[in-house]
Structure formats: structure tokens, C-alpha cells
Design goal:
By secondary structure, the protein is of the alpha/beta class. It folds into two domains: 5-192, Rossmann fold (3-Layer(aba) Sandwich), CATH 3.40.50; 211-406, Rossmann fold (3-Layer(aba) Sandwich). The protein has 14 helices and 14 strands. Helix 4 (99-108) packs parallel to helix 5 (128-138), helix 8 packs parallel to helix 11 and helix 11 (277-308) runs parallel beside helix 12. The protein is globular. It starts with a strand and ends in a 7-residue tail after the last strand.
Amino acid sequence: MYKKTVCVIGLGYIGLPTAALLAGNGYRVLGVDINPHAVETINKGLIHIVEPRLDEYVKLAVSNGSLKAFSKPQLADIYMLCVPTPFHEGDGVPMPNIDYVLSAVDSISKLVKKGDIVILESTSPVGTTDMVAERLHEYGVDSSTILIAYCPERVLPGNIMVELIENDRVVGGYNPASTLAVREFYKTFVKGAILESDARTAEMCKLTENSFRDVNIAFANELSMVCDKEGINVWGLIELANKHPRVNILQPGPGVGGHCIAVDPWFIVSRNLKEAKIIRAAREINNYKTQWVIERINVRIANFTEAYERKPRVVCLGLAFKPDIDDLRESPAVLVAEALQNETCELVVVEPNIVGHDQFTLCSIQEALLDVDLVVLLVKHRQFLDEAVVSRLKLLDVEDFCGITQI
């Protein structure tokens, strides 16, 4: 006997792990995605994304009938919205795009009934949960008869199946009754603390967490550019500075990627142009760092061409936005590789976590390093840390721009 039926809308990097986890905790889960390939793959008990242990959860849930995927929302007791929230390019500042959220609300408007729970997990600008309630009201759904809350995810790709269970969760209800009801729901599968709040505070909390990280990364990235100009090894400098008991500088990288840190700060900036000065500056620094990396590589290419009177063979190691995942969203490594697709060099790209790419012809690390003039290490995938690979890299001309700040 199932506890309740949950309809999870959006079966991506958050929605599918959540759906699979709920299915393993006594719920009947009806997953929804507009991608036919995702639906077909999941219903075979397989996964269309890379995430440790997710395949085990999905295979078991589909085989025992507790998880099934559909192309349209199904009648349920609980609706979880886990859809993308990208941004529009605004007048100098990217603007949040909640079209997918509103479309998801539209799709469940005729299914929601008295006593149902509607949870928004997608990262959203402040006020989005209120808009969900208002949108349902426009369809004739009385918000006082249903329970609506915002509950952002706090997981790290590569460890999602653990962190969905272990991490603390913030539950921000549209009203106090919603907070209490949704808190009890999360208690059934989360071991971490359930922290109660209101919807607007919960929305701002998610944005604050990632903006804080972005600011700290920006410091490291800016420091790396200063040190390059001053002829100082930034890695050694940071190691020394971090010996101070109250200093913990992050490692610089080629920029910031992913669909959280690289996006969420703009949700604050776009609504607070005069106030969010540090947050905006951090975003701009991290975006510029990618261009700085490209410029530095181009200088190396030009110097090689002048010295040897031929184009160099350049190998880019990694396309994902952080180590050991297949997620390329907002990845600075992709931007670097794209910029090198020109007549100045012969570009070779290695990304062991995907089988193919529309823009790049991929090859293995072993093949790439057989004949190469310059290696650009952008992402520290475990395959690149293999002893044989490391020993080979030591013999080559390598630019190392990667760091833990890409997570």
C-alpha cells in the first residue's frame, strides 16, 4: 500500500533523483517530462543522465512498479515542480525566466484538488511561489484549500542520492498550514533537519547560498589574475594564506559553471540593481575569468605559431562544469573550447563522461596525448588524474586552469 501518489514534473538532474528516492520510500511516483527520450529511457529502467547510484534506484523503482514516466501530468496527491529556470538576456543584466514553472502550473491546474500539496523545488526569484498560488487561483483553484510551499534542493552533482537524504532542507510555505504539511512530507525521506520558513525567505535563502559561493569564487579568480600579472604562483600563495586560522581561500578556475552558481545571483541582481553591487561584481568577475583564460591560451598559440611556423595541436581536457559529471550547463570549459574552434590551431577535445557532442569531435585521453603541442586542463575528471596520464602530462606543455571552484 503506497503512502500517497506523487507527480514529479521535470525528470532532470533534480527531478529524476527525487522521483526515484520517493519511489524507494513507499510512494507511488508518476514522473513527467516533455523529452520523449527521457520518458522512454526511464520506463525501461534506465537513466538519461550521469549520477552515481541513480541507475540502481531507477531500475528497482521501475521494476517494482513504484515509478513510471509520462509525457503529461497525472492525477496525484502531491505535485513537485522540478523544472528549469534559465534567464532572459535583459538590458545589461540577465532576467529570470520562470516560463517553465508557470507552464508546469498550467499543466496541473485541472488536476489539483482540495487537500493536495504543490511544491516548487526549482530555483526561483523571490515571489515565484506567490505567483504559483495566483496562477492556480486564475484557474479557479482556491489556494486556501491546497497546500503550497517552496523547498529548494541543496545537492551537489555527483553525490545527489546521498545529499537528498542527508542534507538539511528549508521548507517555505505559502502559509503556516502549508509549511507544516510539507515539513511532514519531507520528514518521510529526509534525515537532515527540516527548517521552517515562509516562501519568500526560502526563495531568497537558495539564491543567497549560491551568491555567497559565487562571491568567494570571484575572489579566488580575481586573485589568480592579479598573481599572473605580478609573476606569483597563485596556487602556492593560496596554500600559504590558508595557513592562517581564519582564512580559507578557494582554488581559482576557468570561470563558474552549472545551473546554480552561474545563474542564481542574477535572480537577486535583476530585482535589486542599486543594492546588489558585490553580487553583481562577483558574477562579472567570474564571467570575465573565462575570457581571460581564452586570451591567455591564444597568446600561447600565437607564440607557438611564430616559433615553429605551424599551427599547434591543442588538447582541451574536460567540458563539464565540474569533475566527474556529464553536466555541461553554463560550463566555462565549453566556452573555452568553442573559442578555440578557429584557424589558429588544431583542436582536440576530451570529455570522458559523454558519448558525443554536437560541436566537438571527442577522442580518448590516450589518443589525444599521443601527438600534442599544448594541453589545456580545464576539469579535473578522475580519468585525468590516472597515474599514467599524470606522468604523460608532466612531459607536455600544460596550462592548468581547473580548480574546485567549479562545483
